């Protein structure tokens, strides 16, 4: 797949969103998707090749890398982007269902198929709850997998087949940590926007 598909999906959802929802789409597209494509992907591109331990025991580096990076940050970020964008498909499908229903009955059934009311409002609220849930789940997952939101300069590994405790060095740790903080900040911002939109729609 190409990231263009995700961009088109977000653009399609933008038509049926509230003002807060449009800000969420802008944040996801500009501060997450574009940052991922333009910068972050390149930083983690050769992370395994650039992971070095101070011993050349066959298999030691691979085992240590797998232990400290069970899932690549960048692949987890990509999965997060896909998962938090997917619930928006519910809204697109519901609007398509309304439009198809009007064609089938050859009469006007809704004031506007894309207007957020009735069943579409429920679908929209469910999509917001799912997006917020996915954001929180991935933040917790990041925290649990990497023992906090940090990238250490040095890790000590004593797993077999390493003969003793060895020092392993991670490439560009400061740069990676900056992007990790950026990831967490934008994720938190999206959670706030989703909760704000949820509150706005419920009280409206």
Automatic annotation (TrEMBL):
GO terms for cellular component: connexin complex. One of its GO terms (biological process) is cell-cell signaling. It holds the Pfam family Connexin. It is a multi-pass membrane protein. It is found in: Cell junction, Gap junction; Cell membrane. Belongs to the connexin family. This is Gap junction protein. It comes from Podiceps cristatus. The lineage of its organism: Eukaryota, Metazoa, Chordata, Craniata, Vertebrata.
